[in-house]
Specification:
The chain is an all-alpha fold. It contains 2 helices and no strands.
Length: about 90
């Protein structure tokens, strides 16, 4: 894959992780508010679990892309600049 595409995907993954972090934090606040009011927590907890699961997937995707970019860089640094002389 082209480095520019990996970088674009990496930026999108970072945005997804940041947004996911916000969703998880807000849902935890909602669970705490409902707990204080003595409300039914079942749906709020289910939604929190879904957000946490999605966040774990976002983080795994981010890690894969970071690894892919590192591998790309290592591969291209090892081969040196295109057309470079070895003398």
């Amino acid at each position: 894959m082209d480095r520019a595409i990996v970088e674009k995907n990496l930026q999108q993954a970072r945005e997804h992780v940041a947004l996911g972090r916000q969703h998880v934090a807000r849902q935890r606040e909602i669970v705490a508010e409902l707990t204080t009011r003595g409300a039914d927590l079942a749906e709020a907890i289910r939604l929190l679990a879904n957000f946490e699961e999605s966040q774990a997937m976002h983080l795994a995707h981010l890690d894969r892309l970071q690894g892919e970019l590192s591998e790309w860089d290592e591969k291209h640094q090892a081969s040196g600049p295109a057309g470079a002389s070895t003398s």
